[in-house]
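ARCHIVE CARD
CATEGORY: sequence design from structure
SOURCE FIELD: tokenized fold
FIELD CONTENT:
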């Protein structure tokens, strides 16, 4: 897709040819395809990214429909990675795409993070929820010097105007990001005295601790949920903006490489 492409005429004009060509040649990893990750992927595909690796283990549930881009009632119980891949290729059939129906864990981190030698990752996006796995992913990317965009907590918030993008060392008014730093120091010896090459997407809005909701609805009748009983509620106009910030930060990282 080098040169002019009618799908991406407007973004090409906005970014300029050098950055747009870099985006077309880029391979971006997105781990987690929920309320944040699905919108980040959509924005990257519609901006002309050349190659994506999508990673998610989960099946779509009824409770995902209020905030996840690929979620439709007719898709319940289908793998999210399949649904997002279909959507991406419907937008841009020339997109190069790798699907991994996996949950990120320390034991399979290399499977996910070792990109093909001929198409190394330029940037990674972390949109996973489980804290210990998120810590491992952040540390692993820091060790590999792989630029990372990491989404902090989007749940329990209603104000999209409070969403910010900063180096993980410099977030403010987000207890979750502060806790991530504390645990990275304690568990992995990470230092935050200088910029980390990890961009955090976070909110300065105080999280509503009372916005509890069932998690998630059963995928199909008679099937138990593997996720526990409750979580904080989420709004699409917040999770989507988190995802858009993540995509914008990924393109900004490409511009700085």
């Amino acid at each position: 897709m080098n040169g002019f492409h009618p799908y991406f005429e407007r973004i090409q004009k906005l970014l300029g040819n050098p950055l747009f060509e870099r985006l077309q040649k880029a391979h971006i990893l997105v781990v987690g395809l929920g309320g944040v990750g699905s919108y980040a992927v959509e924005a990257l595909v519609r901006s002309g990214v050349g190659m994506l690796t999508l990673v998610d283990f989960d099946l779509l549930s009824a409770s995902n429909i209020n905030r996840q881009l690929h979620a439709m009632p007719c898709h319940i119980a289908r793998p999210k990675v399949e649904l997002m891949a279909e959507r991406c290729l419907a937008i841009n059939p020339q997109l190069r795409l790798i699907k991994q129906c996996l949950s990120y864990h320390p034991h399979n981190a290399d499977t996910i993070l070792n990109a093909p030698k001929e198409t190394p990752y330029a940037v990674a996006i972390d949109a996973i929820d489980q804290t210990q796995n998120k810590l491992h992913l952040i540390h692993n990317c820091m060790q590999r010097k792989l630029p990372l965009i990491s989404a902090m907590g989007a749940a329990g918030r209603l104000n999209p105007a409070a969403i910010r993008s900063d180096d993980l060392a410099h977030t403010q008014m987000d207890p979750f990001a502060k806790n991530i730093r504390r645990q990275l120091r304690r568990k992995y010896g990470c230092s935050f005295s200088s910029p980390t090459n990890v961009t955090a997407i976070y909110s300065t809005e105080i999280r509503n601790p009372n916005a509890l909701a069932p998690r998630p609805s059963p995928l199909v009748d008679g099937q138990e949920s593997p996720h526990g009983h409750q979580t904080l509620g989420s709004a699409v106009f917040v999770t989507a903006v988190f995802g858009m910030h993540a995509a914008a930060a990924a393109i900004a990282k490409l511009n700085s490489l």
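CARD ANNOTATION: Residues 217-228 have pLDDT under 50 and may be disordered. The beta strands are 27-31, 51-55, 96-100, 123-126, 148-151, 163-167, 198-203, 212-214, 230-232.
SHELF: design records, drawer C
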